[in-house]
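quick one before i forget lol
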Amino acid sequence: METQYSRMVTYSKNVFIPVTNMCRNHCGYCGFRRKPDDLQAYIMQPARIEKILKKGAKSGCTEALFTFGERPDEDAGYLRRLKDIGYDCTLDYLLDLCRMAIETGLLPHCNPGVLSYEELALLKPLNASMGLMLETIAILPAHSNCPGKEPGVRLETIENAGRLKIPFTTGLLVGIGETEYDRIESLELIARLHRKYRHIQEVIIQNFTPKPGTLMEHHLPPSIDEMIRTVELAREILPDDVAVQVPPNLISPGMLIEHGATDLGGISPVTIDHINPEHEWPAVEQLKQKVGRNVVLRERLPIYPQYIKQEWFSEDIQSLIQHLAGDDGYRKTGIWRS
């Protein structure tokens, strides 16, 4: 007798490309940011990025996740290094990288921090979706000396993405000093923006993990009960067409799926999680074991099916989306049952 599957959980396959680890913010929990004079500070070179993109395409990935520290152009030393590879500003470099990804067969998803309406408008035609974590609406010590983490600034970016009809990812970072009330308020603000613009495709509920050498290296991560409660709140507060995502390399997803999580985000067979390098991505075969019983695991693109059907994309990526997506808007191949 065939088993009845009660839930569908989605994921995408990506390559994670940190264009630079320079950043104007000084978050107390971040192990990604580097100082300008740090030998590990970098701008990833075009040839290296092209190699990663080609390897990702050959490995069956559909998404090129471009991320970097916020407003790196504010540092004069960084700008000199950027000019050495032929660019006057990071946005121009990012636009060319998006074109490179599309030519390689991958759909860009850019997450470059706070952006203006004009910057979002320039990136929109070359992106299947974009993202910016809200993290929290609370003012916290963890965000001291972080101009880009002022909640109003981040909400403005998320709202401008809605005005431009950009399929968007945002989320909460749980356990950095905020309260449950703060989480509820954050989720309600995200829900309000989505009801106005209908552009939030997923909300990540991400657990803080302490990083050695950071100001919060001894700060306790959230408990599993806190994560379950936050996922439940997200599912209760957010509209039904917004996916609740949890990162399967940071927390075991099975129990969170039981409490409302519906997506596992991007996993990569090619690159590490550069924000959390100590936590390996699970392979798809491992995911099938982690999601629990009675779950359909389905591969999607970085743009969710409803936005494909509504044609929230430009002519620049139309043919690639049509090549990768089936009639239902999901990846043409990639369905497994646990």
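fyi The chain has a mean pLDDT of 93.
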